[in-house]
Design goal:
This protein is mainly α and 320 residues long. The protein contains twelve helices and four strands. Helix 2 crosses helix 7, helix 9 packs parallel to helix 11 and helix 9 crosses helix 12. The longest helix has 48 residues. The two termini are 14 Å apart.
Length: 320
């Protein structure tokens, strides 16, 4: 019964995406992070205190997200139908496949229309880097990088934690990931308060990122892209990033497409030097955005199928 709810949630995500005016747990988590961060900054005046406050922020948000989800499902357990519906809806909110596709395609369409000002504005909604001076190739690269990285954060990792520990653990993971996206920056403003969030996000994504390399490389072969290049570059350049996880998926997608990703970018008007990932066998093209989306879709389907098979096999053997 739980497995059918997971499948329903996965299909709902592919169908509906993330309508902006619908209630969504991740938005509630974001509001909680904003409010608690404001309180912690008022109470914690020293750098050391901000490190401690950042740890408290992580515990409150992650514990609250997972705990409240567990309580909700327990309260609804008196009715199997209501519990199934809640599980399916929460699973749907955990996944971001359609949302990522829609966000990437929004930039794709304005780039295709050659409206650079609108492209920079649209891109600013989905990336953390400064976009006001990016060129057309730099914007295409940014979209491909975003889809590649978030194939893990937004799809593969939530599915992994969903099948490992159910909806409460997967919701706790989303809280970990949301905290990292909001405070996990190595800048003077966030370095202290976001240190714990950044480190815990690294830990939570460690195994999913490596699964992403395998799944995206397999997806590249199935899509008749450069499967061998995906395997090779994904492994070779896996640590070409300050994060221990991000380069795994970005390098794999770069290898599949035969383009170069990464490189220096500006964040909050501060130049951040990043290594290049991949080999520039050709210049990046607008169609690479479409290829990256297809890679994400196929990799997500492979992840779902793998976890379903493992769960079915484990249940048959009494392990799961």
């Amino acid at each position: 019964m739980t497995l059918s709810a997971y499948l329903a949630g996965y299909l709902l995500d592919l169908w509906l995406g993330d309508p902006p005016h619908w209630p969504h747990p991740v938005r509630w988590i974001g509001h909680a992070v904003t409010g608690l961060q404001r309180v912690i900054r008022r109470c914690c005046r020293s750098r050391r205190a901000l490190y401690i406050g950042g740890g408290a922020l992580w515990l409150l948000v992650v514990g609250g997200s997972g705990g409240l989800t567990w309580v909700l499902l327990r309260l609804l357990s008196f009715s199997p139908a209501l519990e199934w519906l809640a599980t399916a809806w929460l699973t749907y909110t955990l996944l971001a496949t359609r949302c990522l596709r829609d966000a990437a395609m929004a930039v794709y369409y304005v780039l295709r229309a050659d409206d650079l000002a609108a492209s920079r504005r649209q891109l600013s909604y989905i990336v953390g880097r400064d976009t006001q001076h990016l060129t057309r190739p730099q914007m295409m690269r940014a979209v491909v990088e975003t889809v590649a990285e978030n194939s893990v954060d937004g799809v593969i990792a939530p599915l992994f934690w969903l099948f490992i520990g159910g909806v409460p653990l997967a919701m706790a993971y989303k809280a970990v990931n949301t905290l990292d996206s909001m405070v996990g920056y190595r800048t003077p403003q966030y370095e202290a308060i976001g240190c714990v969030s950044a480190r815990m996000d690294d830990a939570a994504n460690w195994l999913p990122a490596r699964l992403g390399w395998l799944l995206l490389a397999l997806a590249a072969g199935l899509l008749r892209l450069d499967g061998r290049g995906a395997w090779r570059i994904g492994w070779r350049d896996r640590y070409q990033h300050k994060s221990p996880n991000c380069a795994w998926s970005e390098a794999t997608v770069a290898g599949a497409l035969g383009v170069r990703l990464g490189g220096p970018n500006d964040y909050f008007s501060i130049r951040v030097e990043k290594p290049w990932i991949g080999e520039a066998r050709r210049e990046i093209a607008l169609g690479d955005i479409i290829h990256s989306i297809r890679l994400m879709y196929v990799a997500s389907a492979l992840m779902l199928a793998t976890m379903c098979l493992l769960r079915a096999g484990g249940a048959g053997l009494g392990w799961w």
